[in-house]
Sequence to fold (248 residues):
Amino acid sequence: MNPLKSRTLHDAHVIGVKDISPKMRRVTVAGDAFKAMHVDRPAMWMKLFFPMPSNIKRQGRAYTIRACNAEKGWMVFDFALHGDQGPAAWWIARVREGDKLQIAGPRSGYWIDPLQHEQVLIGDATALPAIAGIVEQLPTGTRAQVFIEVADAGEEQALISSANLTLRWVHSGAAFPGTTGKLELVVQKADLPRSCQVFLAGEAFMVRAMRTHLLVDRRILHTSIDAKGYWRLGTADHRDRDQVRSPT
Fold:
């Protein structure tokens, strides 16, 4: 079975909870199934199934793998805290060590073209775990422009990379990152290479607008743009993340 298409549910439990910023919670989960999983690309993701009351239908939510140790059987997920809305947010807000859940995957991920030396990475706070994982794996000599919208300076994270990074943080203030239009304006004013590889993720309407800008105004090839709508304002379970647009 192709591990990228696996839908088998596996038992897991929480072994660590840490707030890395006021609005980002890191949860480490462990399980025997992780030891057999093949995680070989940044921004790969899992479907997480949280415990639900018996009268509520359980649904999976997709989250990026921030780190993985197959030998020891654990994975790390960074959750952007959007408030106490929906079953996933309820669980994440109250998670403790020892809590149980089920997982399925892993799936997709971001393919880094070894022949492309220009990268453009764009996203809101929900895309920060994926972007952080991508820049860690960029080859030395790669030039990467990174645009990330978070609430404020307290949500900015140090990104580790051997690539030549140009990093621009955008602050949304009281609004949800990805919904203000500020990120789009910053990218529109930036000097971007026409030949580049693009990772674009976050709020679905923002992603759609940015993808149109990159295709129409910048004339970047559609095969060079990997765009994913991770979530949609006002929608509890947005599915666009399953639609992977990758050059491979």
Observations:
- The chain has a mean pLDDT of 91.
- The chain has four helices and twelve strands.
